[in-house]
Amino acid sequence: xxxxxxxxxxxxxxxxxxxxxxxxxxxxxxxxxxxxxxxxxxxxxxxxxxxxxxxxxxxxxxxxxxxxxxxxxxxxxxxxxxxxxxxxxxxxxxxxxxxxxxxxxxxxxxxxxxxxxxxxxxxxxxxxxxxxxxxxxxxxxxxxxxxxxxxxxxxxxxxxxxxxxxxxxxxxxxxxxxxxxxxxxxxxxxxxxxxxxxxxxxxxxxxxxxxxxxxxxxxxxxxxxxxxxxxxxxxxxxxxxxxxxxxxxxxxxxxxxxxxxxxxxxxxxxxxxxxxxxxxxxxxxxxxxxxxxxxxxxxxxxxxxxxxxxxxxxxxxxxxxxxxxxxxxxxxxxxxxxxxxxxxxxxxxxxxxxxxxxxxxxxxxxx
Length: 367
Hints:
By secondary structure, this protein is an alpha+beta fold. Helices cover 28% and strands 21% of the residues. The protein is built from 10 helices and 17 strands. Strand 1 (9-13) and strand 2 form a beta hairpin.
């Protein structure tokens, strides 16, 4: 399978015509049964593009669509709560807790991010008394969270198994053996709410460009806003949300585990409809904490060390972030200096200095 050569259609956004990039579609039922042709198609997607749609419109996948709809109801209830209730939960560790709007850099220069996020890790949901926000902690809420985390884990493990087979891996070398369920990891479910914003005048805009720390990301979104920059292109373009499909992208850890033969998808989030509230859910499947990789700088580093380094880069000031090697935020993926992003620089906005809503202490190694 050659890389997608279809000429992307365009949509008008922010005063210009922006591409909508086509993506391959992988059938969940077909990879669940390890069908050779679908496995090979999946492998080529990861080697050449780093992203694809996962079609769940089948008997094996429809339960995950239903689980997501239940999770959306829970998310809405959480995000509609007063800020003091959400901040009460706080940020316990990088993969568990609440981050208010403005915790990270925004998609534009001199802006902060335009979303709030609550994260519940796979390790945490399995505890006898998991640390969960009190306004979404009754028994039915816990079941919704458990179903969402379990379902995303099943989908991502099926993808890993199919990739291992197509890649010719056997025994302990198979990708899924770096992601065993009983071993500690930072795998987490992230629920995100993007506030309405106008990139020409607002100070909180979108989500900065990056690659994901994870091995695989399973993303559910019903609204426009996700942009990708496929390998070999110079312009960010939109990904069209499709009913009954998840969007999958390869993260840094799987790129490293593949010997840097897989592509990790550079992406960002921008406000498409400036007036709408946008909701999305991402499950980040991450390797076991003590899994050893060789990163793009040639360093040998554990999965947990990579996670913690990159998280600290995400929340760093723009000045400190600029000092970090691009291989950290972009996972070793290359960008040309002539890349076109098509966003104006936001106008400065006077903001009264205040104490941060959430205090982030040293990264915890437990949890």
